[in-house]
Amino acid sequence: MSGYKVFAVAGASGKVGKAILDELLRVQPELELEVRIITRKEGGNAAKDTDSLEKRGAKVYAVNYDERETIVHALEGVDVLISCFGATGFGLQLLLVKVAAIAQVKLYVNSHWGAPMDEYRYGLTHMSIKDEPIKLAQEVFHLPWTLFRVGIFPEFCIPFPVTELNLNSRKVVIYGDGQTPNSWTTIPDVARFAVYVLTHLSPSQLQNREFNIEGDRKTFNEVVQLYIAKHPGEFQVTYKPVNVLEEMVKKSEGKDFFHALMIEYATGRVAHDPTKLDNKEFPGWNPKQVVDTL
Ligand SMILES: NC(=O)c1ccc[n+]([C@@H]2O[C@H](COP(=O)([O-])OP(=O)(O)OC[C@H]3O[C@@H](n4cnc5c(N)ncnc54)[C@H](OP(=O)(O)O)[C@@H]3O)[C@@H](O)[C@H]2O)c1
């Protein structure tokens, strides 16, 4: 057991944050956890739902990120701070790290929850903002950190209109030749894994560690075949080759973030090295397969 008992989730109303919160509240009685939510005082989604969240067992701390003392107060006595900020909140994570160090939080979980890319190419260089809090935590504040690299969320990314992979439309565009495997993990499975290791592994197994997990491994062609087998009928697939995507990104002078990301999807950089997976750290983990979400 990690011995960590007091958990705070920042961004608990987002896609990942809500799932992490649900899982923490599910295991709360058994593991005797205190579960806090850090939300924006002005306009925070969780702030609006304070009553119902507190009825479920969470303590809601509405903070103003411009007033450091409100966050220090929310973090006093916290063992693990889990950041689930979405893109618009990434910059604020530097502040979270600083305040977590002041409040003597024992472990900071960075909002990564994404693809296992070790370097950012094309129009993705700004994504290094995701890693800056880790550098700050480690090099300046000596604040132990953890992050989770989970691959693609199938239930979110497949129907997401801009990916052109909405299978229910029965007319999709596949980037590249569709033969490159990708790592996929559903959001609830990510949450179950993260909460399990954060409560069951020892602090030394958690600190300054990147967890690489994969619920399923499938190419885009396989995903389409699985869909057609489950929902037979006419289906149209076209392919957008990688060189076409590269041309689009080049023309945008690196601003076309989306197609830059799709190049990474198409060229296997969203796939884990299968020999380096950490799935075994949760022995009973039985993640859903992509087909279960189709
Ligand atoms: N692997 C994948 O396929 C995949 C897909 C999507 C996202 N992700 C990753 O998952 C992580 C979480 O993303 P998400 O999509 O779940 O997040 P999200 O839904 O966009 O937002 C999460 C929460 O962050 C807080 N927040 C948002 N903007 C903020 C701001 N400007 N200042 C302060 N707080 C702010 C909000 O909480 P309050 O309103 O309560 O303050 C919000 O509910 C990110 O690292 C993202 O890159 C991965």
UniProtKB/TrEMBL annotation:
Keyword flag Methyltransferase: no
GO molecular function terms attached to this record: oxidoreductase activity
Signal peptide: none
Keywords: NADP, Oxidoreductase
InterPro entries tied to this protein: NAD(P)-bd_dom_sf, NmrA-like, NmrA/Isoflavone_reductase-like
Stretches assigned to the NmrA-like domain: 6-253
Transmembrane segments: none
Name of the protein in question: NAD(P)-binding protein
